[in-house]
Amino acid sequence: MASRNFATVSKGAKKDTLWHTLSRDFKINKYKYLIIIPVIVYLAVFAYKPMYGLIIAFKDYRPALGFAGSKWVGLKHFKNFFTDVYFWRLLRNTVTISGLNIIFGFPAPIILALLLNEIRNSAFKRTIQTITYMPYFISIVVVCSLVRTYCQADGIVSSIIVAFGGKAQNLLMNTKYFYPIYIISDIWKNIGWNSIIYLAALTSIDQEQYEAAKTMEQDGLSR
Amino acid sequence: MEHTGVNIEWVFPTAGTDGAQAFNVMLASDTLPDIIYWGLMKDVERLMEEGVVRDLTDYMAEYSPAYYEFLQSNEIYDKYMKTDSGKYYGYGFFREDGGWNDTYLGPVIRQDWLDELGLDTPKTISDWDEVIRAFNEKYDAVLSFAWSRFKTTGISGAFGAYGAIDFQMYIDENNKVQLAQAQEEWKNYMAKLNEWWEAGLLDQDVMTIDDRAAQTKALNGVMGISITSMGQLTNWRTDAEQAGTGANWIGLQYPKGDDGTLSMVFGGPGIGDSASVITTSCPAEKLEIAMRLLDYAYTDEGFLYWNFGTKGVSWDYDENGEPAYTELVTQDPDGLNNAISKYSGSVWSGSCIQATKLLYLKNTEEAVKANDLWYYENKDVAENWKFPTGVTFTTDESNELDELVSAISTYVSEMAVKYITGEESLDNFDDFLEQLDAMGLQRVLEIYQEAYDRFLAR
């Protein structure tokens, strides 16, 4: 259903400028514009105005002197950062963790939503949903504490590994394991919550689409 | 505060917020509180330049007589609480007994295991080696501790070293500032730890556990010898009692080298790094009141009030004429420490003099005995090595240090861990030293040295 809220250009419009289009639109949709104003103010004050603070990247910022009063130092901080002994490691770690998060962390809730969507037994479905999105409400501080305890040499994960014949070790001591521990605990915490949005989208797909797809499939097979 | 007749409005950040951040946010706002108590002593030059902290030199003798007298009575105290140019600015935290409680952590051991095995109390590193191996054989136990309790010192003194994992500056016999981790002795310390690590005698979890986890390990008999604080020792003893394990944790003397070396133990001179300062937001008319108020803590009457609370309510004199807490405090369901802090201001630190009696009352007998053991025997090495908290850096020095120190301290801590776990061999120690120089260690030492010399000259 095409939106009938856009201002239609009436025949013989003399000046078809943006200003005219806008002012015509404003007259028709005045209240919608008014409702948007608080949001725009909010964004302007809390999202755009603070960007002014970015200038401290070029200053020796001292809280007592404020943004305006602090001394200009040009690119000094940037030079320090890029020539720091640890710069490449920082860059590599940040890019890798972000990359892995995208590769594994992004599809995970989508896959979960797809799986949940297929479940017919609603009691089972609801139980799974509750279990998967409970970790989201556990404070991140508690989760970190849990991860540290579980990864100890006498922790639960090591015990499982030993049961399978491996060696007990403190997992956080091994630099290779940091990425998996970080990604997995992140997914565990957020997968349920993030899947809610995807699940909502899936359940709103018209049933007709499914049936149409099935019909097309059958046609294809029977042919 | 009824005693002084002054109305105080207390402002503090909510629990759990980062103190440093809260302080910076406060500085960035337009009005500051009249008085701030914070660990700002080393930055105070800069803060005075920026017009945040008031210079109190002209009024100190007149408006704060008790405090002034206190500072004049002890040259060291006086040096700490002045800037390099001789200006007075703040009211600091002092322990009554000097450095005694600054040595609040040290080695502990299970006496019951020692008795069972018929071993003597370990005194040297060789003794420690023997005891650890014996514990390991008989009880499958390891040497373990909460990482935070180990990072600054551990048992470095036995090797002639002055630090463990954290970047640590110290003063050597020639009054020169040195980096603990750049010394040959530290290399030997790391070698010994590595030996224990490879033999499985040092707990693999050591670098990731905190006090809580260490407490659990103590309860489960995973370790028989450790390094911890007075308060934690009390917890372990309580746990053992409640669970009926028969464990008898007591304080243990800091080990000496086999040749008797003991270069340092964890400690300090009993002067804090925090002070109460009066800000420029405090109007001139209120200055006298503010200074007299802060001075109160250092008078005899104020001393009792700050440490014990209101006479007749939270404390009273006992049979020996010594102050003791009333039942209101000792029976408080929130626990003794919390109860004391409801009535007194000096439980952990404050701009006052902390009474030794308070510490005796706050801790169990065993904990106090442990502290005595850690401190009194080693008095001469507990304080003098420490780079004083009263040293201030100029703005330029601070800026330079900000750039250099963070990389060096990360590098030092990382390499320390690698040496212990054996990931990096100690044969490459010279490369380590070269890398430190390349990162600017000499310049850092120069800056620290200059600041220290200025401090001595005050």
Q: Would you give an account of this structure?
A:
- The complex is a heterodimer of chains A (223) and B (458).
- Chain A has 223 residues and is mostly helical.
- Helix content of chain A is 65%, strand content 2%.
- Chain A has two domains: 18-82, no CATH class; 106-204, Orthogonal Bundle (MetI-like fold).
- Chain A contains eleven helices and two strands, in the order ααβαβαααααααα.
- Chain A has a two-stranded antiparallel ribbon.
- In chain A, α5 (87-105) packs parallel to α10 (178-203), α6 (107-118) packs across α10 and α7 packs across α10 (178-203).
- The two termini of chain A are 35 Å apart.
- The mean pLDDT of chain A is 86.
- In chain B, strands 1-9-2-12 form a four-stranded mixed sheet. Chain B has a four-stranded mixed sheet with strand order 4-7-3-8, sandwiched between helices. In chain B, strands 5-6 form a two-stranded antiparallel ribbon.
- In chain B, β5 (169-171) and β6 form a beta hairpin.
- In chain B, α9 runs parallel beside α19 and α10 (211-219) packs parallel to α11.
- The longest helix of chain B is centred in the C-terminal third of the chain and has 27 residues, at 395-421.
- Chain B starts with 18 loop residues before the first helix and ends with a helix.
- The A-B interface holds A 60, 62-66, 80, 84-86, 148-149, 151-154, 168-170, 172-173 and B 24-28, 46-47, 50-52, 203-205, 207-209, 213, 222, 399, 403, 407, 410-411, 421, 439.
Number of E-type strands of chain B: 12
Mean pLDDT of chain B: 88
Q: How far is it from the N-terminal to the C-terminal residue of chain B, by CA? A: 35 Å
Described by the principal axes of the CA atoms, the overall outline of chain B is: globular
SS strand fraction of chain B: 5-15%
CATH class of the largest domain in chain B: Alpha Beta
Low-confidence stretches of chain B: none
For the record, the count of structural domains of chain B works out to 3
**Please, what is the oligomeric state?**
heterodimer
Which CATH architecture of the largest domain in chain B is right?
A: 3-Layer(aba) Sandwich
CATH fold-level label of the largest domain in chain A? MetI-like fold
The helix-strand sequence of chain A is HHEHEHHHHHHHH
The DSSP helix count of chain B reads 21
Let me know the number of strands of chain A: 2
> How much helical structure, as a percent, in the residues of chain A?
55-70%
SS-based structural class of chain A? mainly alpha
